[in-house]
Specification:
Elements: H1 8-49, H2 51-57, H3 60-65, H4 72-81, H5 85-91, H6 98-111, H7 114-123, H8 128-149, H9 169-203, H10 206-221, H11 228-241, H12 243-251, H13 257-269, H14 275-281, H15 292-307
Helix pairs in contact: 1-9, 2-4, 4-5, 4-6, 6-8, 7-8, 7-12, 8-13, 11-12, 13-15
Length: 311
C-alpha cells in the first residue's frame, strides 16, 4: 500500500485509528453475538414448532382495532425479536394492501429487534424495560394514528404470494446456521469498519464538524447539542451496527447520562432512517409515511417526557 501525497502526521493518525478501532470492535462484536445468536435460534424454534403463530393469535383483536388483519400479528411478533428481514419475508406471504403494509411497517420500524437494541440502549444509560415498553407501546400508538391519517385507497401490494418454505428440523437448523454465519461475518465487517471510521473522524476533526452542523436540530427535538453525532450515527447505520460507537462514546463520557437517556427515548421511536426504511420502500410503502411522521412522533415523545420530567 502506497501513501503517496499523505504527510507523516496523517499516516500516523490513520495507523492509530486502525490500531485503536479493532480491539473495541472485537469486544463489541462478541457482546452482540452472545445476544443475537441465542435469540435468533429461539425465534426460529418458535416458528418451527408453531408456537409463534399461537402467540400471535392473542394479538388478533388488537391488530384489527388498528386497521390490520389478524394474520399481520405474526409479522409484528417476529419483528420484536429479529431484524426487519424476517417480518418483511412474512409480509411478502400475506395479501395486504399498501395501506395495511404502511401501518405494519411503522410498527415494525419502531419495535424491531427490541431485545438486542434495548440491551444496546441499556449499555448507553437507559433502563432496558423502560425502553422496551416505550417502543412496543408507541408502535401501537403509531399504528392507531397512521390508521386515522393514511388515505383509504393506496393501492394493492405487489408482494409475493408464495407460502414460506416448510422445512424439516435438521434442514431448518442448517438454514438458521448459515443465516447466523452470514450475519456474524456481515456484522464483524461493518462494526470493525465503523469503529475505524469513527477514530479517523475523530483524528481529522470530522466529528466536531458534524456535531456542530446537527446541533441546532437537536434543540428543536428537545435533545442536547452534544448528542448530535450519536443521533446521526443511530439514524444512518442503526442501533445494532452503530452500537460500538454509541457505547464507546458513553464510556468516554461524551454525553451525560441524563442527556443519553433522552436521546435513547427519541431513538426508541426513530432510528435507522436509511437502511431499515428503504427495505419497506422497496416493497411499496411510501417514503414519506415511514420517515417524516416517525421523526415527528419521536420529537413529541421527547417533549412530553421532558414536560413530565421523566429522565
Amino acid at each position: 500500500m502506497r501513501w503517496t501525497g499523505i504527510s507523516s502526521a496523517n499516516k500516523e493518525r490513520v495507523v492509530e485509528a486502525i490500531r485503536g478501532g479493532i480491539p473495541k470492535a472485537v469486544k463489541t462484536i462478541g457482546w452482540l453475538l452472545k445476544l443475537i445468536i441465542p435469540i435468533s435460534l429461539a425465534v426460529r424454534l418458535l416458528q418451527y414448532t408453531g408456537l409463534l403463530d399461537y402467540i400471535a393469535q392473542f394479538l388478533h383483536p388488537v391488530f384489527q382495532a388498528v386497521g390490520l388483519p389478524g394474520a399481520s400479528a405474526i409479522a409484528f411478533v417476529c419483528s420484536l425479536f429479529l431484524p426487519l428481514y424476517a417480518p418483511i419475508a412474512i409480509i411478502g406471504t400475506l395479501h395486504l394492501t399498501i395501506r395495511e403494509i404502511s401501518i405494519l411497517a411503522i410498527m415494525c420500524l419502531i419495535s424491531h429487534n427490541t431485545l438486542v437494541e434495548s440491551a444496546v440502549q441499556k449499555k448507553t444509560g437507559s433502563s432496558f424495560w423502560f425502553v422496551w415498553f416505550l417502543r412496543v407501546g408507541m408502535s401501537f400508538v403509531a399504528a392507531f394514528l397512521w390508521n386515522q391519517l393514511l388515505p383509504e385507497d393506496m393501492g394493492m401490494s405487489a408482494g409475493q404470494t408464495v407460502a414460506l418454505e416448510e422445512l424439516t428440523f435438521w434442514p431448518m437448523l442448517l438454514d438458521w446456521g448459515l443465516g447466523a454465519l452470514k450475519l456474524c461475518l456481515t456484522m464483524a465487517l461493518i462494526v470493525t469498519g465503523l469503529m475505524i471510521l469513527q477514530r479517523l473522524m475523530e483524528a481529522f476533526h470530522v466529528m466536531d464538524w458534524l456535531a456542530h452542523f446537527f446541533a441546532p436540530f437537536m434543540r428543536v427535538m428537545g435533545l442536547s447539542k452534544d448528542s448530535s453525532f450519536l443521533w446521526f450515527v443511530a439514524n444512518i447505520i442503526g442501533l445494532t451496527y452503530g452500537s460500538a460507537i454509541l457505547i464507546e462514546q458513553m464510556e468516554n463520557k461524551r454525553l451525560s447520562v441524563a442527556d443519553a437517556r433522552m436521546l435513547n427515548n427519541h431513538l426508541a421511536i426513530s432510528h435507522s432512517l436509511l437502511e431499515d426504511t428503504l427495505l419497506f420502500v422497496a416493497i411499496g410503502v411510501p417514503l414519506f409515511w415511514v420517515t417524516v411522521p416517525r421523526v415527528l412522533l419521536a420529537m413529541a415523545v421527547v417533549w412530553v417526557l421532558r414536560l413530565l420530567r421523566v429522565r
